[in-house]
Amino acid sequence: MITFNYDNISTDKIILEIKCIKCQKHTKTSMLQVPPLDLDNDLNIKTAVYKHKCDCGQDYTVKIYNGIYKSYGEIMELQCEKDDFFVDEISDIPNNKDTIYYDTLCALNNNLSIVENIDKLDDNNRDYLYNLLFANIITIIDAYIKISTESIVLSNDSYIDRFINIFNPYKCTKSSSEERIINFYNKKSFQSLNYQDKLFNDVFGLDIRIDNSLLFYETIRNIIIHRNSIAEQGFVYKVSKKNLLQAINIAKNHIALINKKLINLETNNLINNLYQ
């Protein structure tokens, strides 16, 4: 048996290329889905088992393990380091210029030692830093939406008209529609899930359903940033490690959904332009 490691936050699927121990030719598996993290149990490790058969008939068993603090895989039939194999880690979010804020999100969760180091601090410092990280994660969603959608809005006259009609930015100015939209992107926030709903559903015509947890997280983020973590009733919000990891996972899934929908939108727009 040979083990391999993978990045369990930015990786959603794995393809293995193995030099077959029987025929000595290279054989590729299909895309193997990484099992989801169990955020309700920090110590639980989810397991997925896959079978692969080389063209020569040699069978392989692949096991993929995924836990908050440990993620790895096993190829049961390979015996030692000289056995030749390659691991291709695939994310549901493509690696392009629009993933800068998603990469920031992944970097935070990839380095869990940051969280572990915070755990070693006294209660006040730990609570303070967990709250800041939590607020930053929710803010990343806003930054990602801005950087990924502004050029799409400005590239299409229909989107420009809808954006102006729905958001009506800076209506008292004599600026052009494009200038009004750019000013809106520079000065306003899409952190509000109400704004997100209008942008994706009403401007782009996309059906993007927002996780209810994000509505709650947005409220907590605002309390942390604008009220120093103190709610109106005097309750002080203290984000736990579990809350932090849940926020990362939900934000990652939300951004992945947005990115997938936007890529399909741009592809369809390109095809439509070709046939106009």
Q: Could you explain how this protein is built, in words?
A:
There is one protein chain. The chain has eight helices and eight strands; from the N terminus they run ββββββββαααααααα. By secondary structure, it is α+β, with helices and mostly antiparallel strands.
Distance between the termini: 57 Å
| Rg, Å, rounded | 23 Å
Give the amount of beta strand, in percent: 15-25%
Decide which structural class fits the backbone.
Answer: alpha+beta
Spell out the blueprint of helices and strands:
Layout: E1 2-5, E2 13-19, E3 26-28, E4 32-33, E5 46-53, E6 59-66, E7 71-75, E8 85-90, H1 100-110, H2 112-119, H3 123-154, H4 157-167, H5 177-187, H6 193-203, H7 212-226, H8 241-274
Antiparallel strand pairs: 1-7, 2-3, 2-4, 2-8, 5-6, 6-7
Produce a short descriptive summary.
This protein is an alpha+beta fold and 276 residues long. It contains 8 helices and 8 strands. The mean pLDDT is 82.
Provide tags for this entry.
276 residues, alpha+beta, 2 domains, four-stranded antiparallel β-sheet, 8 helices, 8 strands, flat
